[in-house]
Amino acid sequence: MFGLFANKIEFCYNNLINNLNNYLNNNLNNNMNCNTTNEVDLDLFLCEIDKAILSGNTTFITNAIKKYENIITKSYILWANTIALQIIEEQLDELEI
């Protein structure tokens, strides 16, 4: 009795794993093209903003805005400009006169 039950569980498990592998293979292959998804573009844009914040170099923001301004939402561009201004303000505050 347990042999038949174990066979059914194994069959269900194997089907589940096969379906999961097929799903992952199809979705990963279709979604890994970085040039076509706005979500990935936004992630790359935000990564550049993070670089600017960590380094204090607003050039990262300027370049990111030029590269992604026609791809991502304008609110992110405005936000990035605000971050750039804050970085510059902090640098000015740190200057000793």
Q: Strand portion, in percent?
A: under 5%
> Based on helices, strands and strand pairing, what is the structural class?
mainly alpha
Percent helix among the residues? over 70%
Order of helices and strands: HHHH
Query: Would you count the extended β strands for me?
Result: 0
Work out the count of structural domains.
2
Distance between the termini: 87 Å
User: Looking at the structure, what is the overall shape?
Assistant: elongated
Instruction: Specify Rg, calculated over alpha carbons.
Output: 24 Å
Mean pLDDT: 78
Number of helices: 4
Tell me about the biggest sheet?
none
Low-confidence stretches: 28-36
Structural summary, described in words:
The chain is an all-alpha fold and 97 residues long. It has two domains: 1-32; 34-97. The protein has four helices and no strands. The chain has helices at 2-31, 38-55, 59-68, 74-94. Helix 2 runs antiparallel to helix 3 (59-68). The chain is elongated, with a radius of gyration of 24 Å. The N and C termini lie far apart (87 Å). The model is unreliable at 28-36 (pLDDT under 50).
Would you kindly provide a brief summary of this structure?
By secondary structure, the chain is an all-alpha fold. Helices cover 81% and strands 0% of the residues. The chain has 4 helices and no strands.
What labels would you give this structure?
97 residues, mainly alpha, 2 domains, 4 helices, 0% strand
Tell me the layout of helices and strands:
Blueprint: H1 2-31, H2 38-55, H3 59-68, H4 74-94
Helix pairs in contact: 2-3
